[in-house]
């Protein structure tokens, strides 16, 4: 239509269609439109928009060399290497990783758990041409594997390098975490556990060890422990200059 102003998503979709034909007569734009309708239907399911799930990471309580949050996440989602339970190929997904960082001014070293930050204004959602990357009303950012076309725009857009691409065929998957070759995935706050009223696997594992470095809760509930901690402590958003209003906050950095 002459004179019609296209949205950013429509431009991305059209550009993808011009570059890629999946099969004779089948274009990416056709799949994108159909997939977007399906994804939007699933995202209309009722969620409580008064809730915003979030996490506080107290790096002062993270023990040096501890990877129990990573191990618990890998076990929960079936992310271990196929041949050896304790090894993982470089191409394997990793929903949470621990970064060793050093403050150049003080010389202090930190262990920094890094995962999807579940941004309110999520760049991954903004660039996704099919709507596969989406944010629930309760703040959890997810990837719909049925509509993800593997374009990896979201991986480029994520400032936290928190997304992985599935390169290999998968076996022995965990039913609560559907995955698929050729799709993108990332931390989902263990949404299947949260919807049952439970804590994410990483938080539960950290608590059992007595470290209490991870606190999960409702950021919008003024009476929640998480909200209280956020009020009382000077917390940090990683790359706060981007104004993404992240759902993961850090204390001690």
Summarize the structure.
It contains eight helices and eleven strands.
Number of domains: 1
Proportion of residues in β-strands: 15-25%
* CATH class identity: Alpha Beta
Put simply, the count of helices is: 8
Please name the CATH topology: Alpha-Beta Plaits
- Helix/sheet category: alpha+beta
The outline comes out as globular
Q: Tally the beta strands.
A: 11
| Helix share bin | 25-40%
Note the run of SSEs as H and E.
Answer: HEEHEHEEHEEHEEHHEHE
CATH architecture: 2-Layer Sandwich
Main sheet: strands, sense, barrel: 3 strands, mixed
Strand order of the largest sheet: 10-3-11
Mean pLDDT over the full residue set: 81
Distance between the termini: 52 Å
Instruction: Note poorly predicted spans.
Output: 1-6, 11-48, 82-87
Question: What is Rg?
Answer: 19 Å
